[in-house]
Amino acid sequence: ETFPLYGKNHINICGENPRGTVLDAENNNKVFYLSHIEDFKLENLTIANGNNPSGGGIDCYYTNLKCNDVLFRNNTSNYGGGINSTHSYLYLNNVTMVNNFAQYSGSGVYGDSGSYIVSVNSIFRNENGNEIYFPPYNGTNDCIIVYSDILGGEESVDHSTNTSLIYQDNI
Predict the structure, then answer these.
(1) What's the CA angle centered on 50, arms 120 and 127, to 5 degrees?
(2) Tens digit of pLDDT for each residue in 57-90?
Protein backbone atom coordinates (compact mmCIF):
# COMPACT_ATOMS: atom_id res chain seq x y z
CA GLU A 1 0.00 0.00 0.00
CA THR A 2 1.10 3.53 -0.70
CA PHE A 3 0.08 6.23 1.76
CA PRO A 4 -1.73 8.49 1.99
CA LEU A 5 -4.87 6.89 0.65
CA TYR A 6 -7.12 9.42 -1.10
CA GLY A 7 -10.86 9.34 -0.60
CA LYS A 8 -13.63 9.74 -3.16
CA ASN A 9 -17.31 10.64 -2.82
CA HIS A 10 -19.77 8.07 -1.48
CA ILE A 11 -17.21 5.43 -0.53
CA ASN A 12 -17.52 3.00 2.40
CA ILE A 13 -14.45 1.14 3.58
CA CYS A 14 -15.47 -1.68 5.88
CA GLY A 15 -13.08 -4.08 7.53
CA GLU A 16 -13.83 -7.33 9.28
CA ASN A 17 -12.97 -5.86 12.70
CA PRO A 18 -10.49 -3.31 14.10
CA ARG A 19 -8.01 -6.02 15.16
CA GLY A 20 -8.03 -7.79 11.82
CA THR A 21 -8.11 -4.89 9.37
CA VAL A 22 -5.21 -2.49 9.98
CA LEU A 23 -4.18 0.36 7.69
CA ASP A 24 -0.61 1.00 8.86
CA ALA A 25 1.37 3.87 7.31
CA GLU A 26 4.51 2.75 9.19
CA ASN A 27 5.24 6.39 10.18
CA ASN A 28 5.95 7.31 6.53
CA ASN A 29 2.89 9.51 5.86
CA LYS A 30 -0.70 10.15 6.96
CA VAL A 31 -3.08 7.25 6.39
CA PHE A 32 -5.91 9.16 4.63
CA TYR A 33 -6.15 12.51 2.89
CA LEU A 34 -9.80 13.50 2.35
CA SER A 35 -10.58 16.71 0.49
CA HIS A 36 -13.98 17.98 -0.69
CA ILE A 37 -15.76 14.66 -0.16
CA GLU A 38 -19.54 14.56 0.32
CA ASP A 39 -19.76 11.20 2.09
CA PHE A 40 -16.93 8.95 3.24
CA LYS A 41 -17.38 6.14 5.78
CA LEU A 42 -14.87 3.99 7.64
CA GLU A 43 -16.02 0.98 9.63
CA ASN A 44 -14.47 -1.91 11.59
CA LEU A 45 -10.79 -1.09 11.05
CA THR A 46 -7.65 0.40 12.59
CA ILE A 47 -5.78 3.47 11.40
CA ALA A 48 -2.23 3.21 12.71
CA ASN A 49 1.20 4.81 12.63
CA GLY A 50 0.34 7.78 10.46
CA ASN A 51 2.83 10.64 10.61
CA ASN A 52 2.27 14.03 9.02
CA PRO A 53 2.43 17.70 10.08
CA SER A 54 -1.36 17.99 9.69
CA GLY A 55 -3.50 14.97 10.66
CA GLY A 56 -1.39 11.92 11.38
CA GLY A 57 -4.23 9.42 10.88
CA ILE A 58 -6.66 11.39 8.71
CA ASP A 59 -6.43 14.88 7.24
CA CYS A 60 -9.91 16.22 6.30
CA TYR A 61 -10.79 19.33 4.31
CA TYR A 62 -14.41 20.13 3.45
CA THR A 63 -15.35 16.50 4.03
CA ASN A 64 -18.24 14.57 5.58
CA LEU A 65 -16.56 11.69 7.44
CA LYS A 66 -18.31 8.98 9.44
CA CYS A 67 -16.30 6.51 11.52
CA ASN A 68 -17.95 3.53 13.18
CA ASP A 69 -15.95 1.02 15.26
CA VAL A 70 -12.61 2.50 14.24
CA LEU A 71 -9.42 2.40 16.30
CA PHE A 72 -6.90 5.21 15.84
CA ARG A 73 -3.54 4.32 17.39
CA ASN A 74 0.02 5.61 17.37
CA ASN A 75 -0.57 8.44 14.89
CA THR A 76 1.62 11.57 15.11
CA SER A 77 1.19 15.13 13.89
CA ASN A 78 1.77 18.75 14.79
CA TYR A 79 -2.01 19.30 14.80
CA GLY A 80 -4.52 16.45 15.09
CA GLY A 81 -2.66 13.27 15.93
CA GLY A 82 -5.69 11.12 15.09
CA ILE A 83 -7.67 13.49 12.84
CA ASN A 84 -7.20 17.02 11.56
CA SER A 85 -10.56 18.52 10.55
CA THR A 86 -10.89 21.76 8.57
CA HIS A 87 -14.38 22.85 7.45
CA SER A 88 -15.48 19.23 7.91
CA TYR A 89 -18.21 17.21 9.57
CA LEU A 90 -16.99 14.26 11.66
CA TYR A 91 -19.32 11.67 13.15
CA LEU A 92 -17.35 9.39 15.46
CA ASN A 93 -19.35 6.45 16.79
CA ASN A 94 -17.70 3.81 18.97
CA VAL A 95 -14.28 5.19 18.03
CA THR A 96 -11.20 4.59 20.16
CA MET A 97 -8.29 7.04 20.00
CA VAL A 98 -5.27 5.76 21.91
CA ASN A 99 -1.57 6.74 21.99
CA ASN A 100 -1.91 9.40 19.30
CA PHE A 101 0.33 12.45 19.65
CA ALA A 102 0.12 16.06 18.52
CA GLN A 103 3.17 18.28 18.95
CA TYR A 104 1.02 21.38 19.50
CA SER A 105 -2.71 20.63 19.80
CA GLY A 106 -5.39 17.98 19.48
CA SER A 107 -3.77 14.64 20.18
CA GLY A 108 -7.08 12.98 19.25
CA VAL A 109 -8.81 15.55 17.03
CA TYR A 110 -7.97 19.07 15.88
CA GLY A 111 -11.09 20.91 14.67
CA ASP A 112 -10.64 24.15 12.73
CA SER A 113 -12.45 26.67 10.56
CA GLY A 114 -16.08 25.65 10.78
CA SER A 115 -15.72 22.04 11.81
CA TYR A 116 -18.65 20.12 13.29
CA ILE A 117 -17.62 17.14 15.38
CA VAL A 118 -19.94 14.60 17.00
CA SER A 119 -18.52 11.91 19.28
CA VAL A 120 -20.83 9.16 20.55
CA ASN A 121 -19.79 6.22 22.72
CA SER A 122 -16.11 6.85 22.03
CA ILE A 123 -12.87 6.65 24.03
CA PHE A 124 -10.02 9.17 23.95
CA ARG A 125 -6.72 8.19 25.66
CA ASN A 126 -3.89 10.03 23.95
CA GLU A 127 -0.59 11.71 24.73
CA ASN A 128 0.32 15.34 25.23
CA GLY A 129 -2.56 17.22 26.76
CA ASN A 130 -5.82 18.07 25.04
CA GLU A 131 -7.75 15.26 23.43
CA ILE A 132 -9.86 17.53 21.22
CA TYR A 133 -8.78 21.06 20.33
CA PHE A 134 -10.48 23.99 18.61
CA PRO A 135 -8.32 27.10 18.01
CA PRO A 136 -9.67 30.53 19.03
CA TYR A 137 -9.67 31.86 15.46
CA ASN A 138 -10.75 30.94 11.92
CA GLY A 139 -14.52 30.71 12.21
CA THR A 140 -16.98 28.98 14.48
CA ASN A 141 -17.02 25.29 15.34
CA ASP A 142 -19.52 22.91 16.94
CA CYS A 143 -18.81 19.87 19.07
CA ILE A 144 -21.20 17.36 20.64
CA ILE A 145 -19.78 14.69 22.94
CA VAL A 146 -22.14 12.14 24.51
CA TYR A 147 -21.68 8.74 26.17
CA SER A 148 -17.92 9.01 25.70
CA ASP A 149 -14.87 8.50 27.93
CA ILE A 150 -12.30 11.27 27.54
CA LEU A 151 -9.07 11.25 29.52
CA GLY A 152 -9.20 14.39 31.65
CA GLY A 153 -12.93 14.90 31.05
CA GLU A 154 -14.40 18.09 29.66
CA GLU A 155 -11.20 20.02 30.46
CA SER A 156 -9.43 17.97 27.76
CA VAL A 157 -11.76 19.45 25.14
CA ASP A 158 -9.94 22.73 24.61
CA HIS A 159 -12.18 25.29 22.99
CA SER A 160 -12.80 29.03 23.02
CA THR A 161 -15.86 31.23 22.66
CA ASN A 162 -16.05 30.54 18.92
CA THR A 163 -16.89 26.87 19.61
CA SER A 164 -20.26 25.59 20.79
CA LEU A 165 -19.71 22.57 23.04
CA ILE A 166 -22.35 20.12 24.28
CA TYR A 167 -20.78 17.67 26.73
CA GLN A 168 -23.26 15.35 28.43
CA ASP A 169 -23.75 11.85 29.84
CA ASN A 170 -20.04 11.07 29.62
CA ILE A 171 -17.93 8.85 31.84
Answers:
(1) 60
(2) 999 999 999 999 999 999 999 999 999 999 999 9
